[in-house]
């Protein structure tokens, strides 16, 4: 008879819930970064041509999906500088819409 130790069990969902990218598509990440920083400032932080020359979500997604190093830069930037800002913005928006006037 084997017994399992519940303290040593780890499920993928437990680990994934701590990942700020869990459940987010590249499109969502890019849209959030553009809404927070805009194309010009985003290009200042992440020097990728698709952000500096005639930027669009569609063309940037095409490039990022084909270019792993660029995608990693965008994802890392989002984790470091976008996710917390987005969560705070959402919290403030939710608080302002739920407060009675």
Major sheet attributes: none
Give the overall shape, derived from the CA principal axes. Answer: globular
**Name of the CATH class:** Mainly Alpha
Whole-number total of structural domains: 1
Low-confidence regions: 6-10
How far from one another are the termini? 63 Å
Per the CATH scheme, the topology name is Transcription Termination Factor Rho, Rna-binding Domain, Chain A, Domain 1
Q: DSSP helix count?
A: 5
CATH architecture: Orthogonal Bundle
Describe what this molecule looks like in 3D.
The chain is mostly helical. It has one domain: Transcription Termination Factor Rho, Rna-binding Domain, Chain A, Domain 1 (Orthogonal Bundle). The chain is built from five helices and no strands. α2 crosses α4 (57-66), α2 packs across α5 (68-98) and α4 (57-66) packs across α5 (68-98). The radius of gyration is 18 Å and the shape is globular. The model is unreliable at 6-10 (pLDDT under 50). This is DUF2132 domain-containing protein.
Primary descriptors:
single chain; 101 residues; mainly alpha; 69% helix; globular
Describe, in short, the structure shown.
The chain has 101 residues and is mainly alpha-helical. It has five helices and no strands.
Structural topology:
Layout: H1 12-16, H2 26-45, H3 49-52, H4 57-66, H5 68-98
Protein name: DUF2132 domain-containing protein
Biased composition (Low complexity): 1-14
Region (Disordered): 1-20
């Amino acid at each position: 008879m084997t017994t399992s130790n519940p303290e040593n069990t780890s499920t993928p969902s437990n680990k994934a819930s701590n990942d700020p990218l869990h459940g987010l598509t590249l499109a969502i990440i890019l849209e959030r970064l553009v809404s927070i920083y805009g194309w010009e400032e985003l290009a200042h932080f992440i020097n990728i041509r698709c952000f500096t020359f005639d930027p669009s979500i569609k063309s940037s997604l095409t490039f990022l999906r084909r270019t792993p190093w660029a995608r990693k830069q965008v994802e890392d930037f989002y984790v470091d500088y976008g996710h917390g800002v987005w969560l705070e913005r959402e919290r403030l928006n939710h608080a302002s819409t739920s407060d009675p006037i």
